[in-house]
Amino acid sequence: MPVPVIEISDDEQKIFSPFTGRMLYGQDLSDDQLEQVQELLGEPSLDPSILFMYDGENGEYSYTSSKLIEVLGSDPDEDELEPLVMLGQLELEGVVVMRQCNSSTLGDFWVAFAPIETI
């Protein structure tokens, strides 16, 4: 089954994990929210629902979870797999991908989430 990719082109739109509720991106945040977002961007493994983060502007994965590498059998960054190609090979149920595109802040930023019970 194809993995849904939700495209977001609004810089003001906050991005949350649909499975843990943790915020990964947002504008006009309180100090506490900003600290939480910065912590998560610095160490994405703190949210077990994050499978990968991909920087489309630079064509590289900024984070790949160990579960993603295990399911694929290799590291998509080392294999130079574009996100859509990699998602076509991904056999996990319930994966949701959000793509922040045309953003002046993030450029072309992809993040994939999976239900914690599948990870």
What portion of residues belong to β-strands?
25-35%
**Largest sheet composition:** 5 strands, mixed
> Globular, elongated, flat, extended or rod-shaped: what is the shape?
globular
Q: Which structural category do the helix and sheet elements fall into? A: alpha+beta
Radius of gyration: 14 Å
Distance between the termini: 18 Å
Which residue ranges are poorly predicted, with pLDDT under 50 across at least 5 consecutive positions?
none
Helix content: 10-25%
In the sheet with the most strands, the strands line up as: 1-6-7-4-5
Instruction: Kindly state the number of beta strands.
Output: 7
> What is the element string, with H for helices and E for strands?
EEEHEEHHEE
Mean pLDDT across residues: 89
Total of DSSP H or I helical runs spanning 4+ residues? 3
Features of the shown structure:
single chain, 119 residues, alpha+beta, 5-stranded mixed β-sheet, two-stranded antiparallel ribbon, 7 strands, 29% strand
